[in-house]
Amino acid sequence: MSVSPEEIEAARDLFAGLGEITTRKMMGGLCLYHEGTIFAIMMGDGGLFLKGAGAFAAELETEGCTQWSYRREGRKTPTKMPYWTLPDAALDDPEIACDWARRALAHL
């Protein structure tokens, strides 16, 4: 499943407060960039994830966000990626979403 034009537009609208957002479709999903830096991804099912590592990842985990992981063929343990679900409050509030995105960008 790939992201629809409507889902892309909704993601752009959600993060519009950051300024210009560029996107690139990849593997059925979407990468979101601000000033050339990737800060979030959208999965083919429409799920949004912020890029986060180190102390920022700990903040996201404290907020109840979950880390994106997947299981590679032939491996017993899942592969964890440096992307985390958005806090629930950010999913439909552009101000909160942009605040979290700014924090993600500050930690990259």
Q: How many structural domains are formed by the residues?
A: 1
Q: State the separation between the terminal residues, measured CA to CA.
A: 29 Å
> Share of helix among residues?
25-40%
Which structural class is indicated by helix and strand composition? alpha+beta
Mean pLDDT: 93
Characterization of the model:
The protein has 108 residues and is of the alpha+beta class. It has one domain (5-106): YgaC/TfoX-N like chaperone (Yope Regulator, Chain: A). The protein contains 3 helices and 6 strands; from the N terminus they run αββββαββα. It has helices at 5-14, 54-62, 94-106, and strands spanning 21-26, 29-34, 37-42, 48-51, 67-70, 79-85. It has a 6-stranded antiparallel β-sheet. The chain is globular, with a radius of gyration of 14 Å. It starts with a helix and ends with a helix. 25% of the residues are buried. The model has no long low-confidence stretch (mean pLDDT 93).
Q: Would you kindly provide a brief summary of this structure?
A:
With about 110 residues, the chain is of the alpha+beta class. The chain has a single domain, classed as YgaC/TfoX-N like chaperone (Yope Regulator, Chain: A). About 30% of the residues lie in helices and about 30% in strands.
Descriptive terms for the model:
108 residues; alpha+beta; 6-stranded antiparallel beta sheet; 3 helices; 31% strand; globular
Break the fold down into its secondary structure elements and pairings.
Elements (H helix, E strand, L loop, with lengths): L4 H10 L6 E6 L2 E6 L2 E6 L5 E4 L2 H9 L4 E4 L8 E7 L8 H13 L2
